[in-house]
Write a structure and sequence with these properties.
By secondary structure, the chain is mainly alpha-helical. Helices cover 82% and strands 0% of the residues.
Length: 209
Amino acid sequence: MAKRRNDQDYFARFEDLGKSCALIAKEVQTFILDYNPIDLPKKLEDFHAIEHAADKKQHELIEFLIKDFITPIEREDIIALASSLDDITDSIEDVPIKLYTMHIYDITPEAREFMEIIVKSCAKLVEILKVFRYYKKTGAEIRKSIIEVSSFEEQADRLHINAVRRLFEECKNPMEATAWLEIYAKLEKCCDALDRTAAQVGEVIMKNS
Protein backbone atom coordinates (compact mmCIF):
# COMPACT_ATOMS: atom_id res chain seq x y z
CA MET A 1 0.00 0.00 0.00
CA ALA A 2 1.13 3.57 -0.65
CA LYS A 3 2.37 5.66 2.24
CA ARG A 4 -0.43 7.67 3.85
CA ARG A 5 -0.49 11.44 3.59
CA ASN A 6 -0.57 13.15 6.98
CA ASP A 7 -3.94 14.79 6.32
CA GLN A 8 -5.51 11.44 5.59
CA ASP A 9 -4.01 9.33 8.37
CA TYR A 10 -6.86 6.89 8.98
CA PHE A 11 -5.19 5.20 11.93
CA ALA A 12 -4.74 8.53 13.73
CA ARG A 13 -8.39 9.28 13.07
CA PHE A 14 -9.46 5.91 14.48
CA GLU A 15 -7.42 6.65 17.59
CA ASP A 16 -9.00 10.10 17.85
CA LEU A 17 -12.49 8.59 17.65
CA GLY A 18 -11.49 6.07 20.32
CA LYS A 19 -10.35 8.91 22.57
CA SER A 20 -13.77 10.52 22.14
CA CYS A 21 -15.34 7.28 23.42
CA ALA A 22 -12.99 7.28 26.41
CA LEU A 23 -13.66 10.96 27.13
CA ILE A 24 -17.44 10.71 27.21
CA ALA A 25 -17.24 7.49 29.24
CA LYS A 26 -15.04 9.16 31.86
CA GLU A 27 -17.26 12.25 31.98
CA VAL A 28 -20.41 10.18 32.45
CA GLN A 29 -18.70 8.05 35.11
CA THR A 30 -17.57 11.14 37.04
CA PHE A 31 -21.10 12.52 36.99
CA ILE A 32 -22.66 9.23 38.07
CA LEU A 33 -20.20 8.77 40.95
CA ASP A 34 -21.41 12.05 42.47
CA TYR A 35 -24.89 12.03 40.96
CA ASN A 36 -27.10 15.07 41.28
CA PRO A 37 -30.22 15.01 39.07
CA ILE A 38 -30.50 18.80 39.29
CA ASP A 39 -27.28 19.09 37.30
CA LEU A 40 -28.36 16.56 34.68
CA PRO A 41 -29.86 18.95 32.06
CA LYS A 42 -26.60 20.96 31.89
CA LYS A 43 -24.47 17.81 31.86
CA LEU A 44 -26.52 16.45 28.97
CA GLU A 45 -25.40 19.47 26.95
CA ASP A 46 -21.78 18.75 27.85
CA PHE A 47 -22.09 15.08 26.91
CA HIS A 48 -23.79 15.95 23.64
CA ALA A 49 -20.98 18.37 22.78
CA ILE A 50 -18.50 15.47 23.02
CA GLU A 51 -20.76 13.23 20.94
CA HIS A 52 -21.29 15.97 18.33
CA ALA A 53 -17.53 16.55 18.03
CA ALA A 54 -17.03 12.81 17.52
CA ASP A 55 -19.75 12.80 14.85
CA LYS A 56 -17.93 15.60 13.04
CA LYS A 57 -14.66 13.64 13.15
CA GLN A 58 -16.39 10.60 11.69
CA HIS A 59 -17.94 12.64 8.87
CA GLU A 60 -14.57 14.20 8.07
CA LEU A 61 -13.01 10.74 7.89
CA ILE A 62 -15.69 9.57 5.45
CA GLU A 63 -15.24 12.72 3.35
CA PHE A 64 -11.52 11.99 3.08
CA LEU A 65 -12.30 8.41 2.17
CA ILE A 66 -14.63 9.47 -0.66
CA LYS A 67 -11.83 11.51 -2.23
CA ASP A 68 -9.04 9.00 -1.54
CA PHE A 69 -7.83 6.47 -4.06
CA ILE A 70 -5.42 4.27 -2.11
CA THR A 71 -6.27 3.28 1.47
CA PRO A 72 -4.19 1.36 4.06
CA ILE A 73 -7.00 -1.16 4.63
CA GLU A 74 -10.19 -1.99 2.73
CA ARG A 75 -12.62 0.88 2.32
CA GLU A 76 -15.53 -1.08 3.77
CA ASP A 77 -13.45 -1.84 6.87
CA ILE A 78 -12.67 1.86 7.34
CA ILE A 79 -16.38 2.70 7.10
CA ALA A 80 -17.42 -0.13 9.42
CA LEU A 81 -14.82 0.69 12.07
CA ALA A 82 -15.58 4.42 12.00
CA SER A 83 -19.30 3.63 12.32
CA SER A 84 -18.69 1.25 15.24
CA LEU A 85 -16.61 3.82 17.10
CA ASP A 86 -19.39 6.36 16.57
CA ASP A 87 -21.91 3.83 17.90
CA ILE A 88 -19.92 3.54 21.13
CA THR A 89 -20.04 7.29 21.75
CA ASP A 90 -23.76 7.37 20.93
CA SER A 91 -24.47 4.42 23.25
CA ILE A 92 -22.64 6.02 26.16
CA GLU A 93 -24.48 9.31 25.65
CA ASP A 94 -27.76 7.38 25.69
CA VAL A 95 -27.17 6.38 29.35
CA PRO A 96 -27.51 9.85 30.95
CA ILE A 97 -30.30 10.67 28.48
CA LYS A 98 -32.18 7.66 29.82
CA LEU A 99 -31.51 8.79 33.41
CA TYR A 100 -33.09 12.11 32.51
CA THR A 101 -36.14 10.79 30.65
CA MET A 102 -36.84 8.23 33.36
CA HIS A 103 -36.60 10.82 36.17
CA ILE A 104 -33.91 8.89 38.06
CA TYR A 105 -33.04 10.51 41.40
CA ASP A 106 -30.65 7.92 42.85
CA ILE A 107 -28.00 5.77 41.17
CA THR A 108 -27.67 2.08 41.93
CA PRO A 109 -24.31 0.48 42.80
CA GLU A 110 -24.67 -1.69 39.69
CA ALA A 111 -24.89 1.37 37.42
CA ARG A 112 -21.63 2.65 38.89
CA GLU A 113 -20.04 -0.78 38.36
CA PHE A 114 -21.20 -0.75 34.74
CA MET A 115 -19.58 2.63 34.16
CA GLU A 116 -16.32 1.41 35.68
CA ILE A 117 -16.30 -1.51 33.22
CA ILE A 118 -17.12 0.82 30.32
CA VAL A 119 -14.31 3.23 31.23
CA LYS A 120 -11.79 0.39 31.49
CA SER A 121 -12.95 -1.08 28.20
CA CYS A 122 -12.67 2.30 26.46
CA ALA A 123 -9.14 2.75 27.77
CA LYS A 124 -8.17 -0.66 26.45
CA LEU A 125 -9.74 0.11 23.07
CA VAL A 126 -7.67 3.31 22.84
CA GLU A 127 -4.56 1.21 23.52
CA ILE A 128 -5.54 -1.07 20.65
CA LEU A 129 -6.12 1.83 18.26
CA LYS A 130 -2.86 3.49 19.26
CA VAL A 131 -0.82 0.56 17.91
CA PHE A 132 -3.27 -0.48 15.17
CA ARG A 133 -1.17 1.16 12.43
CA TYR A 134 1.71 -1.17 13.35
CA TYR A 135 -0.48 -4.29 13.33
CA LYS A 136 2.09 -6.36 11.42
CA LYS A 137 4.43 -5.96 14.41
CA THR A 138 1.91 -5.52 17.23
CA GLY A 139 -0.62 -8.19 16.22
CA ALA A 140 0.04 -10.35 19.29
CA GLU A 141 -0.25 -7.35 21.62
CA ILE A 142 -3.50 -6.27 19.96
CA ARG A 143 -5.00 -9.76 20.17
CA LYS A 144 -4.24 -9.86 23.90
CA SER A 145 -5.97 -6.51 24.37
CA ILE A 146 -8.97 -7.67 22.33
CA ILE A 147 -9.33 -10.63 24.71
CA GLU A 148 -9.25 -8.19 27.66
CA VAL A 149 -12.07 -6.13 26.13
CA SER A 150 -14.02 -9.35 25.64
CA SER A 151 -13.49 -10.23 29.30
CA PHE A 152 -14.89 -6.83 30.28
CA GLU A 153 -17.98 -7.59 28.20
CA GLU A 154 -18.36 -10.93 30.01
CA GLN A 155 -18.14 -9.11 33.35
CA ALA A 156 -20.88 -6.79 32.15
CA ASP A 157 -23.07 -9.75 31.18
CA ARG A 158 -22.75 -11.23 34.68
CA LEU A 159 -23.36 -7.82 36.25
CA HIS A 160 -26.49 -7.36 34.14
CA ILE A 161 -27.91 -10.71 35.24
CA ASN A 162 -27.26 -9.99 38.92
CA ALA A 163 -28.52 -6.40 38.67
CA VAL A 164 -31.82 -7.48 37.14
CA ARG A 165 -32.22 -10.24 39.72
CA ARG A 166 -31.65 -7.80 42.61
CA LEU A 167 -34.05 -5.35 40.99
CA PHE A 168 -36.89 -7.87 41.06
CA GLU A 169 -35.99 -8.99 44.57
CA GLU A 170 -35.83 -5.55 46.16
CA CYS A 171 -37.62 -2.94 44.04
CA LYS A 172 -41.28 -2.55 45.00
CA ASN A 173 -42.09 0.20 42.52
CA PRO A 174 -43.00 -1.24 39.08
CA MET A 175 -42.24 2.03 37.27
CA GLU A 176 -38.84 2.31 38.90
CA ALA A 177 -38.08 -1.31 38.05
CA THR A 178 -39.05 -0.72 34.42
CA ALA A 179 -36.82 2.35 34.27
CA TRP A 180 -33.81 0.51 35.61
CA LEU A 181 -34.38 -2.44 33.27
CA GLU A 182 -34.05 -0.01 30.36
CA ILE A 183 -31.02 1.73 31.86
CA TYR A 184 -29.21 -1.56 32.50
CA ALA A 185 -29.95 -2.58 28.92
CA LYS A 186 -28.37 0.69 27.71
CA LEU A 187 -25.30 0.10 29.85
CA GLU A 188 -24.89 -3.45 28.59
CA LYS A 189 -25.27 -2.17 25.02
CA CYS A 190 -22.21 0.06 25.59
CA CYS A 191 -20.15 -2.95 26.62
CA ASP A 192 -21.40 -4.96 23.64
CA ALA A 193 -20.46 -2.12 21.27
CA LEU A 194 -16.96 -1.94 22.73
CA ASP A 195 -16.46 -5.69 22.42
CA ARG A 196 -17.77 -5.69 18.86
CA THR A 197 -15.47 -2.84 17.82
CA ALA A 198 -12.38 -4.45 19.32
CA ALA A 199 -13.26 -7.69 17.53
CA GLN A 200 -13.59 -5.73 14.26
CA VAL A 201 -10.00 -4.53 14.61
CA GLY A 202 -8.93 -8.15 15.03
CA GLU A 203 -10.82 -9.17 11.89
CA VAL A 204 -9.18 -6.39 9.87
CA ILE A 205 -5.76 -7.53 11.04
CA MET A 206 -6.51 -11.12 10.04
CA LYS A 207 -7.64 -10.00 6.56
CA ASN A 208 -4.47 -7.99 6.03
CA SER A 209 -1.90 -10.35 7.55
